[in-house]
Each structure stands twice: as C-alpha cells, then as structure tokens.
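Budget justification aside, the reviewers requested a transparent look at the raw inputs and outputs of the sequence design task funded under Objective 1. We therefore reproduce one unedited record. The lines immediately below are the structure tokens for a 340-residue chain.
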C-alpha cells in the first residue's frame, strides 16, 4: 500500500558547522526562498546530527544551530509558511536512518566522494557517523516523503544514493512507499569556489577565513576579502570558452552574475578586457548590497536566542506530525510492528 501523493514537497538542510557563506546563500538559501515564494510546501532543517559527524565544540554548537536558523530567516524563509527546525528535535530522522543503514550496501557507501574528501588520509580514525552520513541524509528527505531537494552540486551523489535507497527499499518490500526524489541543482551558482583557490570549493570549514565571504562579514571585511581574492594577471575574457580556462575569473564573474541576478554572458559583455582591479570594486559593491541586509537581520535575530529556540521548537512540532506516521508505517512494512 502506498500513501504517496502527487504533491510536490521540498526538503533541504544546512549544517550548523561554522559560519554560513555566500556559497550557502547562492547555492542553497536563495533557491529555498524561491521555492517558498512559488507556494510549494517547504521543510527546511538545520542538520545538527550531521554536524557532529566531525567534532563540534559543545559550548559553541547550540549557538551555531541558532545562527544557522537566523540565516534561513534573514535570507527570507517565512517560518509561518515553511517549516524550520533542527534535526535532533525530531527523532524520526535517526529512526529511519537506522532502517536505511540496513538497506544501503557497503559498496554504495564506499563510493561516496564526500566521505573520501572529509576523511582524507585519516579514514581509520573517522567517525562511523561520517561514513553513515548519506543514509541519515536519505532519511531526512524520505521521512517527509519529500519529492524535491534543492542543493548545491556537491550533494548530487548523496541524492543519487537517496534514490537508490528508496528504490531498494521499495523493491525489497514490494511497495511504492518511498518516492523517488528529484534533485534541484539549478542556476550558475551551484558550485562557488574558494577565493584563495579557484579549483577548490568555498567551504565554511576551510581553515582560511579569507577563502570565503561569511553571512556575518561586515562591509570592510567583504571589500578586503574581495581585494585579496586570488586572480591571474590577464584582462577579463569575453567568452565562456575563454572563461573555462580561468578558474578564478570564472568564479568571481559567476558570483557577480548570481548576486546581481543576471546571466554570465551579460557579465562577460560588461567586463570584457577590463582588469581585475576595475572589476573587483563592482563585485564588492553588489556583494555588500546583497549580503549586508542579511547580516543586519542575522545579528538582530541572534540577540534573542529564546525567540529562535521557540521558532525551532514550533517547527519541530509541525515536522513531527508528518514524520512520525511515516516511520510507524515503515516499521509496519519492515515487520517490526503489527499492521493496523
Ligand atoms: P553545507 O555547508 O555543507 O551544510 O551545505 C549546505 C548547502 O549549501 C548544500 O545545499 C550545499 O550543496 C550548498 N553549498 C555548500 N557549499 C557550496 C558551494 N561552494 N557552492 C554552492 N553551493 C554550496
Ligand atoms: N549534506 C548536506 C550538505 O552538507 C546537508 C544535508 C543534510 C541535506 N541532510 C540533507 C541537504 C537533506 C538536503 C537534504 O550540504
């Protein structure tokens, strides 16, 4: 039996590990807001259980959860319309993740590039949670029977695994209970690169703060980071083909296009033949213009931690109402529980 509906339901998550960056904003948050505006049912989650797959200082984690929540709200998530909460408040995620640990195969998990990247040469000393990270992510999504998942490019493989898990579960148990999800990886900002190295992803966990623009950086810091951003010594190119050979130019021009909501071709036309020294102040200007209002709002929200906690609690309550029956039904399908 299937209680699958044709309805579109969006789910996505962001880890509360470090400061959120413009990459999170352009690759994820901006799309979350667009989907909300389109009237789709959206569930957004601060994935704190994912964050602790690598060490998090307990004295900082709670505030990091609030901070991530504040970034969602400041970016435009309306907590009346969309559901916003942190993962550890809804135990159904961890419960379904265990079932999925018994569905996913070691061979599939061994192919996950994010684990390989994060574990590096220290594989033997990585947490089991870091290895099992993608099954928890599949559970996050499928515990709501979500159909659409907006993410940046780096999460594509995890979403393919989520589809494999849903398919295998459905096949093994002769059901169509779990939907096969659609990744939503759209726009030109699906992979923003480090400001220090155009071949490396911008990441909130990068050691160098100069590699990223945080959603908390003030105007002076943004201008400084863009001024110091690595470039080559040539004038900016005029075609996408030329741009492909210039990782730093490509990244900065992409960021400019995404922030000013225009196409890359427009940006190429506007700046062809100009030097970085001329382009960078324009990039700073649009970055400050887009990011400053978010930063101001985040700071305001962070002044009232209790209010943020209440918002997350209320979101979790709404989330549980959807997730708990799906876990109970899963237990029935698996035979852990008598069918009602
Ligand atoms: P994380 O920071 O790993 O919790 O990622 C949260 C969301 O931001 C996910 O949808 C990621 O795919 C997206 N994201 C993270 N880093 C980047 C990046 N460098 N470029 C584009 N999207 C990103
Ligand atoms: N793994 C994602 C990231 O690091 C975060 C995440 C956890 C997520 N659960 C999710 C994203 C479910 C989309 C859907 O970016």
């Amino acid at each position: 039996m299937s209680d699958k509906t044709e309805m579109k339901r969006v789910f996505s998550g962001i880890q509360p590990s470090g400061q959120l960056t413009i990459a999170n904003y352009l690759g994820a948050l901006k799309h979350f807001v667009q989907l909300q505006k389109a009237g789709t049912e959206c569930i957004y989650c601060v994935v704190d259980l994912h964050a602790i797959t690598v060490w998090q200082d307990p004295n900082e984690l709670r505030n990091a959860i609030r901070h991530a929540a504040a970034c969602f709200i400041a970016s435009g998530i309306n907590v009346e319309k969309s559901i916003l909460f942190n993962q550890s408040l809804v135990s159904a995620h961890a419960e379904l993740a265990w079932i999925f640990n018994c569905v996913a195969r070691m061979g599939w998990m061994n192919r996950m590039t994010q684990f390989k990247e994060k574990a590096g040469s220290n594989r033997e000393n990585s947490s089991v949670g870091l290895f099992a990270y993608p099954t928890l992510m599949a559970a996050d999504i499928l515990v709501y029977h979500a159909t659409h998942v907006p993410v940046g490019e780096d999460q594509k493989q995890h979403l393919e695994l989520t589809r494999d898990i849903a398919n295998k579960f459905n096949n093994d148990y002769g059901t169509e209970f779990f939907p096969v999800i659609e990744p939503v990886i759209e726009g030109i900002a699906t992979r923003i690169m480090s400001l220090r190295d155009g071949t490396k992803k911008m990441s909130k966990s990068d050691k160098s703060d100069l590699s990223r623009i945080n959603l908390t950086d003030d105007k002076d810091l943004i201008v400084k980071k863009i001024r110091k951003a690595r470039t080559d010594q040539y004038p900016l190119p005029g075609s996408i083909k030329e741009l492909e050979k210039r990782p730093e130019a490509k990244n900065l021009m992409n960021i400019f296009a995404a922030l000013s909501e225009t196409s890359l071709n427009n940006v190429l036309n506007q700046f062809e033949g100009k030097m970085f020294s001329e382009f960078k102040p324009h990039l700073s200007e649009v970055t400050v213009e887009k990011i400053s209002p978010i930063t101001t709002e985040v700071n305001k929200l962070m002044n009232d931690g209790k209010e943020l906690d209440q918002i997350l609690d209320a979101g979790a309550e709404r989330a549980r109402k959807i997730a708990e029956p799906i876990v109970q039904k899963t237990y029935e399908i698996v035979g852990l529980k008598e069918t009602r």
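Residues 11-13, 15, 47, 50, 137, 140-141, 149, 151, 155, 158 surround tryptophan (ligand 2) (CB under 6 Å). The domain at 3-191+304-334 is CATH 3.40.50.620 (Rossmann fold). Computational costs for records of this kind are itemized in the attached budget.
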